[in-house]
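BACKBONE GEOMETRY TOKENS
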Amino acid sequence: MPTGPTSPPPPPTPPLTPLPLPLFPLQTVLLPGVTLPLHVFEPRYRQLTVDLITGTVPEKRFGVVALAPSAGVEVTSLEQLKPIGCAAILRQAARLPDGRFDIVTLGEHRFRLLSVDPEAAPYLMGTVEWLPDAPAMIPGQRMPDDTVVALVASARAAYRRYCQAAWKQGDWTEPAEDVDVASLAHLLATDCLLPLEDRQRILEETRPLHRLRLVTRLLSREAGILATLHAIPAPPADLHQQAIEN
């Protein structure tokens, strides 16, 4: 079962200056505030995990970035990756007898990928700049609070329709009522099996209210498809495991 619908305190906004960051390319999209377990078996990413645990990599932070379509096995250029990724913080790590790791990470800040270097470390390194949200405001709107309340209600309703169509009761948990607007869209998307490109659109959207509208449309579309086809996806835990193995 996905483990995303929680609302950890948002991390402090980082300085908007380019910085180096280890990269973990995946065939999935990590969203801020969302938990992502990973099974690490490639030697280079085992080394990254060791460096995260020992503090060789500062603050146990690395970048998760989705692979672009038709990306080669070995990532050596920007064109092989999506332009926007999400920093992850290592929260838990368990080393298995054969040297592999099971780790749990938490999505943190969104970043723009500026360059990659496949030779600077045993694993892929990138230069990134943080990409913060725009203010959650509607220009020219006299009663923004009413508009925000309506957007939140619509997004939550779309989430419930999707989950009721897709999962058994108890396989999903709606985010708490006190989740802030900036975090809500990311958490609502966590339990929903959206295509990678849709999840990437959610990650790249920096306007919180536009992001809520986008998630509402996507979840309503997917709920409609499920209702029309009378199809039920694989259990959340199974699909989550498929997406996270490196």
Remarks:
- Confidence is low (pLDDT under 50) at residues 1-9, 235-244.
- The CA atoms of residues 28 and 196 lie 6 Å apart.
- The chain is about 35% helix and 20% strand.
